[in-house]
Amino acid sequence: MSTDDAGKAKSNQQWGGRFSEGVDAFVQEFTASVQFDQRMYRQDICGSRAHARMLHKVGVISEEDLNAILGGLDEIEQEIAEGRFQWSVELEDVHMNIEARLTDKIGIAGKRLHTGRSRNDQVATDIRLYMRDAIEAVQAETRRLLEGMLHLASRHTSAVMPGFTHLQTAQPVTFGHHVMAWFEMLMRDHSRLQDCARRMNVMPLGAAALAGTSYPIDRNYTAELLGFDCPAENSLDAVSDRDFSIEFCAAASIIMTHLSRISEELVLWSSAQFAFIDLPDRFCTGSSIMPQKKNPDVPELVRGKTGRVNGHLISLLTLMKSQPLAYNKDNQEDKEPLFDTVDTLLGSLRAFADMIPAIEIKADNMREAAFRGFSTATDLADYLVRKGLPFRDAHEVVGKAVRLGVDSGRDLSEMSLEELQGFSDKIGADVFSVLTPEGAVQARDHIGGTAPAQVSKAIQRGHERLAALS
Ligand code: ARG
Fold first, then answer.
1. Is the CB of residue 332 below 6 angstroms from any atom belonging to ligand 1?
2. pLDDT tens profile 62-74
3. pLDDT per residue over 219-266, tens digit each?
4. Which residue's CA lies nearest to atom 4 of ligand 1?
5. What CATH number does the domain containing 356 carry?
């Protein structure tokens, strides 16, 4: 930092008038945000261009000043993009770094840019612009993952596997149906992001520090230039609330929670104990000591990163909860959790979008597992109901048959007709068609059911729903 002859820090060039000494060197470092908010430089420059155009439109700055500002901002944008820009901690944040550089370049016109504006409405605008692009990128990866899920499901509409409740074999389902359950989760995530983007797209500029400004500004014009739906209604609210970031982090946490649940299944299924799937080698790593190992690192890491994203959501909620109106410096702490959420989410979605469609299934093992655990017991009960038995009695009959199966180590489908008829004389030779996993899935033939024909229709509708996303 710069010092005067006596070795004391010089007061800050942006507000030096009020201060008799410069800020402590450590405090300067401690209070700065330029290390992490420089990632919003494009948005900051965009906001400045629009603000300058508006100031000129309403007659606050001359055409000459406007042109100097626009030219200077273009050069600065290029300097930053090419890594030639000297970021300075003394200038605290991205906003003051860029503004100071502008004044260096174009002189007095640069000093006019901040008319009717404050860093408070500036930063609230920059984050929204940044998040608008970030949400679009997250949605694009989500969509790619959704396409990957449709692809995987469509390859296996009729492969049978056990469906689980309590992680105990429950009833047979098709693998395609299981994958389409994931698809539904991620479709809701996509629409949550859409809601979040819509509520976020309101412009703070013009709120200035907190109360608005005495210049004859045209906020609708600035909003239009920046692609916001409208100016924010209330200046105090506009500069202070970060609920849009919290909302994004909440949506991100839910997405990560979904990816984490899927991860858990992939980890289980790729184990030797389940042996339902093969994850492509390129998404796994080996062990430095155990030569046989192929570890499902990608799903494990995504499951782990969920904790990190959840933590960021709690950080932002806690950051906000005690803040009186309007802006408080606390809000500078919003960026690191938010940016890390964007990065972590994008990385996780990208890995999943690449990995999911490349999964290979071990259909024989899945089918074999569906025979174990009496997964067609409900189907036998339903069969007896169709033959006139009340459901509770049918449940009792099948319970007894299952007990025989447990004792003799056999599935219901492996018992003879005579044995089965010993439990109920309503049982006929046609019973065997409902005792196979194929028969069981075939029977659940309604919207939302697991029958292969229904899964194919769900996939078809899935393609249409994806195509209709904005
Ligand atoms: N770096 C600040 C932030 O991230 C910008 C706004 C600062 N405003 C202020 N009055 N100190 O929130």
1. yes
2. 999 999 999 999 9
3. 999 999 999 999 999 999 999 999 999 999 999 999 999 999 999 999
4. 332
5. 1.20.200.10
